[in-house]
Design brief:
Elements (H helix, E strand, L loop, with lengths): L3 E2 L2 H10 L8 H10 L3 E2 H7 L3 H4 L3 E4 L2 E4 L2 E5 L2 E5 L2 H5 L9 H9 L5 E7 L5 H6 L3 E7 L3 H14 L4 E4 L12 E9 L6 H4 E12 L3 H12 L4 E9 L2 E8 L4 E4 L8 H8 L2
Parallel strand pairs: 7-8, 7-10, 8-9, 10-11, 12-14
Antiparallel strand pairs: 1-5, 2-4, 3-4, 5-6, 11-13, 12-13
Length: 271
């Protein structure tokens, strides 16, 4: 995980493997979704399945077909994102970043019934988590990011992922989850006991606060419900929180030199 690119050959091959385009016209997909250049509609109709229009990945105008955005690769996942020019504009859709890679790397691989992803942008973490969850709900309040998330889900072809345009404070309305990934402000950590099922695990990139302040917020939120947590600062204004609900109570730093991974996360939490 962690390599994020729009490498043309890779995009074409991955699209073709998922039926997006039909061989041998992968060049059409690369021209549309990576270079951002229009192609003749007759060529696009021959190369792409009808679902590309239904999902609004492309649009037709004056005999040519235009992509509505770019298709990026994030590990083995295909994601829809804004064109380069649109991404730089106000309210543009951000591409996956190091935080997405961090959350994916630390995600426990044990299969779960339900995974909840909060504030995950265009779906890098939600789609990665879908391989080990029977049901995935992705919450993204920013309207254009929600649109991108829906399109990323359409590209994935995974029917067990749903997207909702909800704020983090409304996450509990979607039900309890066995595993949660999120980007949250320190004050929003109070929602965790309301979304975590018995023995649920949360991986959260926290913006603002330090280890002591975060522990105080969690103690107040969980009240008498036990929890165990680990923390690592990853920058001047944020860090990664690993939390196990209903575990043996404990709190401490993620030791220096420990590389996070699926097994390491579980071991650190004692789960």
């Amino acid at each position: 995980m962690g390599r994020i690119s729009a490498a043309t050959a890779e995009v074409g091959e991955r699209l073709r493997s998922q039926g997006y385009p039909l061989a041998p016209q992968a060049q059409v997909a690369r021209q549309l979704f990576d270079a951002g250049d229009p192609v003749r509609t007759t060529d696009a109709r021959a190369a792409l399945p009808g679902g590309a229009w239904g999902a609004r990945l492309v649009r037709d105008e004056d005999g040519h077909t235009h992509a509505t955005g770019r298709i990026l690769t994030h590990g083995s996942t295909l994601l829809w994102a804004d064109t380069r020019a649109r991404a730089r504009a106000p309210y543009g859709v951000p591409s996956p970043d190091a935080i997405d890679a961090e959350l994916c790397t630390a995600l426990p691989s044990r299969p779960v019934r339900r995974h909840l992803d909060i504030g995950g942008g265009i779906g890098a973490v939600a789609l990665f988590a879908a391989s080990t969850a029977r049901e995935v709900t992705a919450l993204e309040p920013r309207e254009r990011c929600t649109l991108a998330l829906h399109r990323s889900i359409s590209l994935s072809g995974q029917a067990h992922i749903t997207a909702e345009g909800l704020q983090p404070v409304d996450a509990a309305t979607t039900g309890l989850a066995d595993r949660v990934t999120a980007r949250l402000e320190q004050g929003d950590l109070a929602l965790l006991p309301h979304v975590l099922h018995l023995d649920g695990v949360a991986l959260v990139h926290v913006h603002g606060g330090d280890g002591g302040a975060i522990a105080e917020t969690l103690h107040a939120a969980f009240a008498t419900r036990p929890w165990a947590g680990r923390w690592r600062a990853t920058g001047p204004t944020g860090g990664l929180l690993l939390l196990l609900a209903d575990g043996d109570p404990g709190w401490g730093p993620i030791p220096d030199g420990i590389r996070l991974g699926p097994d390491t996360t579980v071991a650190l939490l004692g789960g």
